[in-house]
Design goal:
6 helices, 23% helix, 6-stranded antiparallel sheet
Length: 208
């Protein structure tokens, strides 16, 4: 029997940990927990708590990000007007795209700038990108001051969330000490959907 490939296993774990379907009936317990719900309603729960280790790989707490102050401030409705549905889910609610599916996962330009998909602020140079095999774009460093770090304690695990310093858009997480042969021994694991790419090396000022 042929075993599934590693990317297939990762995508399977992502699916399991990001959507668990449960059927709740019109009982006092379900009413107390969920509010009004008709009998037989199917509720989808993100990042199922019964597998905290796997769920912690693909979810993020936005509490610190929401409390921070960023130059660009918009309401959710204003963000929805300029972002598509998937961009809003990831940038504004700290979602995660499935591994090995992003446009920039295997994108390897020799020059250029990766910018925030929400505000166009420059985040990473093409020379910061490296092949990590993790399923998401990986960068060993960012443009100085472009990325802000927050402690993410989702599921009791201490991770470091990274967001755009200009608008607070969720980018992903940064991991250190994994042994990659890079100058910083850090891996900025970033969602492709959080990014856009420009071929030319333009100024590194804030986006609009």
């Amino acid at each position: 029997m042929r075993l599934p490939s590693f990317p297939t296993l990762i995508r399977t774990f992502y699916t399991i940990t990001n959507a668990t379907t449960a059927r709740f009936f019109n009982s006092p317990a379900s009413q107390k927990t969920l509010g009004s719900s008709s009998r037989g309603t199917t509720i989808v729960h993100k990042s199922m708590p019964t597998i905290p280790f796997l769920g912690s790989l693909f979810s993020s707490s936005a509490q610190s990000r929401a409390m921070a102050d960023y130059p660009i401030k918009k309401s959710d409705d204003e963000w929805r007007a300029v972002l598509n549905k998937e961009q809003f889910r990831i940038l504004r609610t700290a979602g995660t795209e499935p591994p090995y599916t992003g446009a920039y996962d295997k994108h390897s330009p020799s020059s250029g700038i990766y910018t925030c998909a929400g505000c166009n602020s420059p985040l990473y140079r093409a020379t910061h990108k490296f092949k990590s095999g993790c399923g998401w774009p990986a960068y060993f460093d960012s443009i100085p001051g472009a990325v802000t770090r927050h402690t993410d304690s989702t599921f009791g695990m201490a991770r470091t969330e990274i967001v755009c310093s200009n608008c607070g858009g969720h980018l992903g997480h940064v991991f250190k000490g994994e042994g990659y042969p890079t100058p910083t021994d850090e891996r900025h694991c970033v969602n492709s959907i959080s990014l856009t790419f420009r071929d030319e090396e333009v100024g590194e000022g804030k986006g609009a």
